[in-house]
Amino acid sequence: MHRRTLIVTFCLLLLNSRLVLGQDNGASFLSFIKNQAQTLRAGDVPPASIDDWKQRRAALRENLLKAWGGFPETDCDLSPQVLGTFQRDGYRVEKLVFQTRPGVWMTANAYVPDQPGKRPAILQVHGHWAGAKQDPAVQSRCIGSVKLGYFVLCVDAFGSGERAVGKALGEYHGEMTAATVLPVGLPLSGLQVYENRRAVDYLRSRPEVDPDRIGITGASGGGNQTMYAGAFDERLKCVVPTCSVGNYQAYLGAACCFCEVVPGALRFTEEGDVLGLAANRGLMVTSATKDAFQFSVDEARKSVARAEAIARLFGTSTKHTIIESPHDYNQEMREAMYGWMAKHLKGEGDGSPIPEPPVQPEPREMLLCYPNESRPDDYLTIPRFAATEAIRLAEQRPVPADRAEWEKARPKRVESLIQVLGGQPERTALDLAVEPGNSDKDQKLAFNVEPGLRTVARRDLPEKPGRLAIVLDLDGGLERAWSGDLATRLRDGGWAVVTPELRATGQFADPRDKIGHAPDHNTAEWSIWIGRPLLGQWVWDVRRTLDAIAERDGSLPHDVLITGQGTAGLVALCAAALDERITRVTAVDSLGSYVTDQPYRGLRMGLMVPGILRDFGDVGEIAALVAPRPVTIQGGVSGGGQPLDTARLTAAYSSTRKVFELLEAPSVLLLQGGRD
């Protein structure tokens, strides 16, 4: 299939991934997530006055910046380089690069009008078009704008166009590529805001540009970039997001690119207030009547109404343009944008649409900064950037010097892990129900893990109680774990086995959850919107399973093992780190480290915890919290899905080994099965 067809099909899947569910198959989890979001935002009201809004605005900017991981204290030199130019009637096009962060280069095209004096400028940010800044759909609005007298800068977003992991156009920067920056606490949405700020810096450095007359526009993912950059960068005097505005709660039940996700946003705001940050600076939202639900006219109206209420406080107004169209940035949408930009950047007209001049897009190759895939081999891609950041963070983490220092630090480390995993809900009534199993030696439990969310587990009734093994399987679910080789070996060794069904997995899995290389893309994404990564929710399900067994039997056995294979291994390690009722843990072929310079492969998106490497540490630090209880690591895999050899497995758990040595228990940390 042609690359363009592939990416268009993929993006349509993202836009239209609404759930059609049967009796459950994820329905209970989605309902739970939506209820959580509604509770978080139940107290939202419009600001009552300008002073009220100013206080809210300050808090909102602070929370957004925190969710995005902050911006560098000092901007690096842009060091722009023009790599080529060509002339067209009335304008020229420059192929250029500039530095947004040290070593991170943004590819761009500048469309420069052949007109004297300082011109108003438009920053054009693409959406999920296969060609990025080179795509004909994106070129059209750039050419139309430059012919109308604007200096235009069109940039490739991080991971897209000429900035992908590979050198060819058409690569998608979302799912497990975007996931690589989550653990370092720099989500793609925030990286894009900062990079677009640097693009504004570049525009303001150009002698042809009037620095006080700059606007921004884009569609789809580019519309989200427009909203966030326009909200945060007050140098932008006209903000036109297209086919992108809905509201955050509308994302719950749909799919979107991870470049559009602000971790934990629903804990502190809704989209209307974010739009409100630009409400007094020429805000126009364009919606299409045939768009996906999360960008639909009705959902957009909710956010536009909030932004309009804020604009009225300043004696200004916003505009909501509704066009009969599917998801696009078509000529009618472009003409609406030209008219709105003219009003706010040129002081011309009343904002009504302006007819588009003749537009003839160039062949994509004409616009490439690195033609014929000539981009340098050491170019800093999203995963390489993430790895560089992860290594820098690791160098800053303190290493305990002695046992006393570790024992003093451990409670704070536990609390840090709890917080980065989204906190812990209150324990509420289990409402435990017990049913006979398939024989007189097992039974089934059903219980509440949280209000509004119920799960099930299957357990052995051992002849000699005293040893309980929790076996986790995120991919095959409860029944595969129950009947698998690992459970069989444990029973043969005298363990009673329990296999819980963790939320959003097994029989509770969403049937349309998989996007690209992420088997649980959507449920993980919805969880991040409410600030509760799936990993933390799964750990809570394990702890509630122990509560259920303790309630049923009156107590827990004296020896409780938890074991997980593959992606479940990290769940097991986290559960043991946070619950001392677990006396030992085994992780089999599990993730050895979040640090990777390749896109994640063979893993679940639910393991991706925003900021874990920044605010807590790596997998080895999680395992260290279990000490001095026994920890067995049987093999491991890299972030890219490759088996770890002995040296890399040992390195991944070097911090774990140090803590076990400080506690004089090195013999109960077992690293087995590195593949040499």
Question: Secondary-structure blueprint of this entry?
Answer:
Layout: H1 3-15, H2 27-40, H3 50-67, E1 81-88, E2 91-101, E3 104-113, E4 119-125, H4 136-147, E5 151-155, H5 175-178, H6 188-205, E6 209-219, H7 221-232, E7 236-242, H8 248-251, H9 271-276, E8 284-288, H10 297-313, E9 319-323, H11 331-346, H12 382-396, H13 403-420, E10 433-436, E11 442-450, E12 453-460, E13 467-472, H14 477-483, H15 485-492, E14 496-500, H16 521-529, H17 534-553, E15 559-565, H18 568-578, E16 584-591, H19 612-615, H20 619-624, E17 631-637, H21 646-652, H22 654-662, E18 669-672
Parallel strand pairs: 4-5, 4-6, 6-7, 8-9, 13-14, 13-15, 15-16, 16-17, 17-18
Antiparallel strand pairs: 1-2, 2-3, 3-5, 10-11, 11-12, 12-14
Helix pairs in contact: 6-7, 17-18
How is this structure best summarized?
The protein is built from 22 helices and 18 strands. By secondary structure, it is α/β, with parallel strands linked by helices.
Work out the number of β strands: 18
Low-confidence stretches: 1-23
- The fraction of residues assigned to DSSP E strands is 15-25%
Question: Quick check: average pLDDT?
Answer: 94
Structural class by sheet pairing and helices: alpha/beta
3D shape = elongated
Largest sheet: 9 strands, mixed
Assign a percent range to the helix content: 25-40%
Biggest sheet strand order reads: 10-11-12-14-13-15-16-17-18
- Alpha-carbon Rg, integer: 27 Å
**SS summary, helix count:** 22
